[in-house]
Fold:
Amino acid sequence: MKYSNLLVVLCAGFALAGSAVEAGAAQKGVTHASAAKKMTQKVVFQVSDNDPRKWQLTLNNMKNLHAAMPDATIELVAYGPGIAMLDESSPVGEGVKAALAGGVTVAACENTMKALKLEKTDLLAGVSFVPAGVVELVQRQAEGYAYIRP
Structure:
């Protein structure tokens, strides 16, 4: 058998095997969506921009993720100019409060706070603090968190 013919046969075999696995899963009532819901996912979001639209996008993404995967661990890390949106009077303050109430961890970078001369009491109640936002992102990714940035 020629090499190219062998590849065609192997590819067809793998496709049939994959279809058989999916068919078996479907018979058991398992779909990609239900499998995703059963899987415990860890996700870290980054917002480093002082842009209400990016913040709103991130808040919406976290809300949608939580709806699809209620057991997911969700963290948002804010640093740089983005930390301004963690103020009580920010245009997304209510959305951040709702995320906190829904179980999202919202972490503010203490390096940024120090540079901006911010105190912990200057930020929304419930916000947690990390020494360095970038380090937090690196550590979370090393721990298997999916990383999302708008």
Notes: The chain has six helices and five strands.
